[in-house]
Amino acid sequence: MARVSTALVLIAFFFVFPSMVLATQYVVGDDLGWSGDADYEGWVADKTFFVGDVLVFNYVATDHNVVIATNGDNYDNCVASPNFGVYDSGNDAITLNEAGTYYFLCSYHCDYLQQKVMVTVN
């Protein structure tokens, strides 16, 4: 009986909190990282993101940063302030905590390298 109860609890957990169990970690830009050399629109095109997934931004900390823009207009126009956060460690892991659209950009290279990525989370 204890085994059945444990199994039912685990099954219920998977249905109630699927993102905690199935979370995926993505390296933005894959091998190119967050460098301005990648096609970030192409990179995101074949991916489906869910609440709990993690984006990892790898880059040279003295050359780039990661800014979470507040909205689509700021993203489109490469406006870095106001923002929801600025990261500059060179290896930033950002958890996608809620459904919606996230806008990431490099405040140094957004304008002329189009170093930005928009992620929609289900």
Automatic annotation (TrEMBL):
Pfam families: Cu_bind_like. One of its GO terms (cellular component) is plasma membrane. Residues 1-23 form the signal peptide. Residues 24-122 form the Phytocyanin domain. CDD domains: Phytocyanin. Gene3D superfamilies: Cupredoxins - blue copper proteins (2.60.40.420). The keyword Disulfide bond applies. PROSITE patterns: PHYTOCYANIN. GO terms for molecular function: electron transfer activity. SUPFAM superfamilies: Cupredoxins (SSF49503). Keywords: Disulfide bond, Glycoprotein, Signal. This is Putative cupredoxin. It comes from Rosa chinensis (China rose).
